[in-house]
């Protein structure tokens, strides 16, 4: 994997977990983490579980024991690394947006097409189409449950830049990121709308704007965090992108990508309206999908919330028992963290066995109360 910031952490987690929950035909091994700063990349490799590190991706691409290159660097290096990797016969997974310009993206797509002829494949990481509720939305549209699609509303709303003193991270610099909200999060909205409706955008009409044009330079940048320097620099990308789009199907859609939607943290939303029904997805509520069935008798219609947590839903069967939501696992990670920290500090982790005993006494008291005809029963009396 080349790169080790926020997306590096996310991809590491994906590589580690996928073969444990899904029966894969091959098991990915997390072999080499690549970054220019030897010390930082070695710390990241220890943290995220990569066996080795390297500071030059070219050396890694040249190795015979490497089959896949995962690219999680800023967009300015995607094209060079991806093309070299494909030419070296490595399969490639590359973060979105694919590149910083159409020219680069076209070179990458050409390289990928040639590689595919040799059985070497490339994929771009539009991850959100694999959130089960989003995938299920696509399934409902494909099954005709929405009928003829009339209209699409897609937005990706964040607010992490509303502070004018937030540092000038790489995502705010055109030469590194290609564009701002448009490419960083608008790309997700475009991919999701096209994926769910099964139709590509044919033409668009839009406006982009930059609200805060100058910010403190970023120091100690890592992932989405950085500290502000006393020097300032120019923001060279958009903060907001608004556009309407005409799909090849003829359907009209509205799109909004912004990092200035105060209070909205990571709201990738998609609403699709059709002759037989409608659906509404919101990443901030990712375990559910709103569905409106316009074929139901008048008076019984209304948006209903489908809990996308059942084995019938895409991807879900491999995870937890029905109803146990994505994110269920995080409670166990937090439990392990708190347990290890407390024990290492020589302190009592909570809840303690004494807390467990108290719950046991409550249970015993309920049984005892029931046996005695529902009499009020003291919890601490339970032996
Ligand atoms: C930051 O805006 C960011 O991390 C994007 O870069 C990701 O693509 C998106 O998934 C979440 O927000």
UniProtKB/TrEMBL annotation:
UniProt cross-references to InterPro entries, sorted A to Z: Gfo/Idh/MocA-like_OxRdtase_N, Gfo/Idh/MocA_oxidrdct_glycsds, GFO_IDH_MocA-like_dom, NAD(P)-bd_dom_sf
UniProt domain GFO/IDH/MocA-like oxidoreductase: residue ranges: 137-279
Alphabetical UniProt keywords: NAD, Oxidoreductase
Transmembrane segments: none
Positions in coiled-coil regions: none
Residues of the Gfo/Idh/MocA-like oxidoreductase N-terminal domain: 1-124
Keyword NAD: yes
Domain of life: Bacteria
Any GO MF annotation of the entry: nucleotide binding
Record's signal peptide: none
Protein known as: Gfo/Idh/MocA family oxidoreductase
Source species: Glaciihabitans arcticus
């Amino acid at each position: 994997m080349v790169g080790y910031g926020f997306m590096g952490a996310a991809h590491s987690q994906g590589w580690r977990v996928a073969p444990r929950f899904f029966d894969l035909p091959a098991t990915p091994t997390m072999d080499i983490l690549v970054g220019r700063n030897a010390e930082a990349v070695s710390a990241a490799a220890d943290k995220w579980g990569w066996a080795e590190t390297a500071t030059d991706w070219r050396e890694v691409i040249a190795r015979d024991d490497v089959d896949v290159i995962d690219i999680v660097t800023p967009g300015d290096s995607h094209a060079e690394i991806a093309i070299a990797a494909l030419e070296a016969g490595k399969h490639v997974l590359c973060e979105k947006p694919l590149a910083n310009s159409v020219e680069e993206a076209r070179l990458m797509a050409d390289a990928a097409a040639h590689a595919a002829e040799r059985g070497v494949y490339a994929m771009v990481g539009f991850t959100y189409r694999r959130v089960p509720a989003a995938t299920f939305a696509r399934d409902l549209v494909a099954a005709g449950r929405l009928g003829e699609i009339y209209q699409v509303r897609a937005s990706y709303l964040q607010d992490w830049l509303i502070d004018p003193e937030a540092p000038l991270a790489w995502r705010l610099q055109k030469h590194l990121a290609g564009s701002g909200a448009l490419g960083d999060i608008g790309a997700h909205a475009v991919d999701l709308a096209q994926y769910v409706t099964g139709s590509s955008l044919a033409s668009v009409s839009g406006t982009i704007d930059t609200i805060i044009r100058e910010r403190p330079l970023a120091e100690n940048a890592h992932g989405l965090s950085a500290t502000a320097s006393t020097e300032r620099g120019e923001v060279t990308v958009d903060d907001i992108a608004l556009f309407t789009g005409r799909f090849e199907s003829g359907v009209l859609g509205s799109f909004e990508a912004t990092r200035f939607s105060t209070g909205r943290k990571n709201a990738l939303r998609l609403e699709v309206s059709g002759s037989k029904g409608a659906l509404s997805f919101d990443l901030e509520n990712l375990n559910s999908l709103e569905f409106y069935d316009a074929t139901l008798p008048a008076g019984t219609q209304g948006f209903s919330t489908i809990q996308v947590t059942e084995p019938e839903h895409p991807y879900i069967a491999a995870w937890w028992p029905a109803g146990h939501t994505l994110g269920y696992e995080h409670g166990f990670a937090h439990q392990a963290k708190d347990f290890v920290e407390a024990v290492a500090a020589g302190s009592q982790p909570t809840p303690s066995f004494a807390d467990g005993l108290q719950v046991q006494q409550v249970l015993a008291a309920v049984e005892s109360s029931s046996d005695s005809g529902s009499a009020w029963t003291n919890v601490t009396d339970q032996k």
